[in-house]
Write a structure and sequence with these properties.
Mean pLDDT: 78
Radius of gyration: 18 Å
Number of domains: 2
Distance between the termini: 18 Å
Helix content: 40-55%
Strand content: 5-15%
Oligomer: single chain
Structural class: alpha+beta
Length: 233
């Protein structure tokens, strides 16, 4: 399995990153992942034993992310995989997948990275329960709330609806398309952390401008834009 490409950060990638960071604010990977630590995972037995948890094990996985996402979606009724990554749990290489079911109920699913076997499905956690699960999440929520502080309540509701439509557009993509986008997001996130404060601020300003153009589009138009981006990768 190929490693996540170390591509140069571009504005389109920053747009996709902002989609994950902002659009999924109501279904944020970081928030849901934080809740993962609260679950007591029963003993699992995977097929790929890992001793060095600090190394990059991308090449050790025998299945691709999209396959693990499909397994995760099939394990939770009426769900969509919203994020995923390789992880080492109890000494075995697994895919940790976050899925969102009806009524904004999230689950964490562990899938064996060797044979695609379902290893664990967490209990469902409602959005209200996993928001602000740690201080950093609360600060992040305040940051985005402050971002729209100058808007009227009606305008904020419109923004909320627009971001929800971006989430719907993302879920309208195929599993392969979503997996490809997630892989690029993960790669971009690592690189973004290496930028200087000035470079980050400049990228954020460019993101804001591009997001302002994306948000007013219809769900169908948003989906088309995301699909065009995936096809350009």
């Amino acid at each position: 399995m190929a490693k996540i490409p170390k591509t140069k950060i571009t504005i389109p990638l920053m747009v996709i990153a902002s989609i994950f960071a902002i659009t999924l604010l109501s279904n944020s990977p970081s928030d849901v992942s934080a809740e993962y630590d609260k679950f007591s995972v029963p003993e699992i037995s995977g097929t790929i034993a890992i001793t060095d948890t600090s190394a990059d094990h991308s090449d050790d996985a025998k299945i691709v992310l999209s396959v693990a996402m499909a397994v995760a979606e099939n394990s939770v009724e009426n769900s969509k995989a919203m994020w995923g990554k390789l992880d080492v749990t109890q000494g075995f290489l697994v895919y940790k997948i976050g899925v969102l079911a009806n009524d904004d109920i999230s689950h964490i699913v562990l899938v064996d990275a060797g044979n695609g076997e379902l290893l664990y499905v967490s209990d469902g956690v409602s959005k209200d329960n996993w928001k602000h699960s740690k201080p950093s999440d609360s600060k992040s929520h305040k940051k985005w709330k402050d971002h729209y502080a100058d808007l009227t309540p009606e305008e904020r509701e419109i923004k909320k609806q627009q971001w929800g439509e971006v989430k719907d557009a993302f879920f309208a993509l195929s599993l392969d398309e979503r997996a490809k986008m997630i892989m690029h997001f993960m790669s971009m996130k690592v690189q973004f952390e290496s930028l200087t404060d000035e470079e980050r601020d400049a990228k954020k300003l460019e993101m804001k401008s591009m997001m302002n153009k994306l948000l007013p589009l219809s769900v169908e138009e948003k989906t088309l834009k995301l699909r065009e981006f995936v096809n350009s990768l």
